[in-house]
TrEMBL record:
The gene is gdhA. It is an enzyme of class 1 (oxidoreductase). Its EC number is 1.4.1.4. Keywords: Oxidoreductase. This is NADP-specific glutamate dehydrogenase. The keyword Oxidoreductase applies.
């Protein structure tokens, strides 16, 4: 059968079987349509049902998470872990705590994770989890009780050679610490079962910085490969969490000027360039809102709402907040304001339509699977250190991160060229990520 028709049919039945799961269906559509040239070249992927197996998670776990708030009220959230694919290594991927979390979002993130993790060149499969719990406004004790309850169910499904969760939106060092403590208490075993751990109990140096730094390393390589760089360029970054903060730090180190950051309430614009120490104080120490930047810098401008950030004129845009934050309209605005490169720090921050606008206008575009792989890549380095019972220096980890991000760029670039899509890193990243997993699945038989 014609590969294109085969993929169209498969997407149709996927829609039937996963009704209403928009985020997951979008992610699957992007990957499956871009690997058509691979299927045309090697029919075994169709004959052995690799795609049908790939879109079906190996296991989906959903569970009740009861906890008690500071006023003594019983609260209940829903927990998830989607163990999507273990063909090339133990399931690996973050936990997201955010009120928007549902099965579709966790499946989309888990599906993306398979290919992202494959691109890192390290032996990690794909998984994702989380809860619709909202950490905003919760006390430290409430966060601890929630994390303990979450792990009291999750512990039985994970293990250092089975599934190794980490952080994502709403899950940082504090939450990983509480969950690790509970896991260790139940299992009575000091395992490298979570990554993003604190440095005193098995965490890796440079893990905190890794996603943001990695994003900038990859985008910098893409720029250089096209005769450009970050020096003196105006950069807009959305978000103000872990990814955005360390992307800003690295852009500034390379001589770029970051003029805007945001959170889920609004964005700040500072024409002189963002003062990162102030942002770190607000976000990492006080756990406050980005609006508080105005208390430190009177002539900065704060605007309510998130979309407006894309109307700021810039040379390079790095969306680092969340999925679907840049739609076609925002992408058109960016293009008409002269943006020449965009790197996705968040997972799928551009809608499929927005991606198309950038590609049609020859904007250099680094897709999330490649561009934000630095976090999970460094998590895999944390796993290696835990297995060795050693810890490497910051410089060692950072050097490996940089080398592997540069490799990801060229792997994606070369795969795109080989299959007739020169310059299209979306297709290139999908193909390069797919091939390793698909070949492992072929070798392991119909399982
Ligand atoms: N949540 C991050 C991601 O989206 C990191 C996952 C990990 O370190 O396992 O890739």
């Amino acid at each position: 059968m014609d590969a294109k028709v085969y993929v169209e049919n498969l997407l149709c039945s996927l829609e039937q079987n996963n009704k209403g799961e928009k985020e997951f269906l979008d992610a699957a559509t992007e990957v499956l349509t871009s690997i058509v040239p691979v299927l045309e070249k090697d029919k075994r992927y169709i004959e052995e049902g690799v795609l049908e197996r790939l879109v079906e998670p190996e296991r989906v776990i959903m569970f009740r998470v009861p906890w008690i708030d500071d006023n003594g009220n019983v609260r209940v959230n829903r927990g998830y872990r989607v163990q999507f694919n273990s063909a090339i290594g133990p399931y690996k991927g973050g936990l997201r705590f955010h009120p928007s979390v549902n099965l579709s979002i966790i499946k989309f993130l888990g599906f993306e994770q398979i290919f992202k993790n494959s691109l890192t060149s390290l032996p990690i499969g794909g998984g994702k989890g989380g809860s619709n719990f909202d950490p905003k406004g919760k006390s430290d004790r409430e966060i601890m009780r929630f994390c303990q309850s979450f792990m009291t169910e999750l512990y039985r499904h994970i293990g250092e050679n089975v599934d190794v969760p980490a952080g994502d939106i709403g899950v940082g060092g504090r939450e990983i610490g509480y969950m690790y403590g509970q896991y260790k208490r139940i299992r009575d075993s000091f395992d490298g079962v979570l990554t993003g751990k604190g440095l005193s109990y098995g965490g890796s140096l440079a893990r905190t910085e890794a996603t943001g730094y990695g994003l900038v390393y990859l985008v910098d390589e893409m720029l250089r490969d096209n005769g450009k760089d970050f020096k003196d360029k105006t950069v807009v970054i959305s978000g103000s969490g872990n990814v955005a903060i360390y992307a800003t730090e690295k852009v500034q180190a390379l001589g770029g000027k970051v003029v805007a950051l945001s959170d889920s309430s609004g964005y700040i614009y500072d024409k002189d360039g963002i003062n990162l120490d102030v942002v770190k104080e607000i976000k990492e120490v006080k756990r406050g809102r980005i609006k508080e930047y105005l208390n430190y810098k009177k002539d900065a401008v704060y605007t309510e709402g998130c979309k407006g950030i894309w109307s700021i004129k810039c040379d390079i845009a790095l969306p680092c907040a969340t999925q679907n934050e840049v739609d076609a309209k925002s992408a058109k605005l960016l293009v008409s304001n002269g943006v020449f490169a965009l790197g996705e720090g968040a997972n799928m921050p551009l809608t499929l339509e927005a991606q198309k606008v950038l590609l049609d206008n020859n904007v250099l575009f680094a897709p999330a699977k490649a561009a934000n792989a630095g976090g999970v890549l460094t998590s895999a380095l944390e796993m290696s250190q835990n297995s060795q019972r050693l810890s490497w220096t910051f410089e060692e980890v950072d050097k490996k991160l940089k080398e592997l991000m540069v490799n990801i760029y060229y792997n994606a670039k070369n795969a795109a060229k080989e299959y007739g899509y020169e310059g299209n890193l979306v297709v290139g990243a999908n193909i390069a990520g797919f091939l390793k997993v698909a070949d492992a699945m072929l070798a392991q038989g119909i399982v």
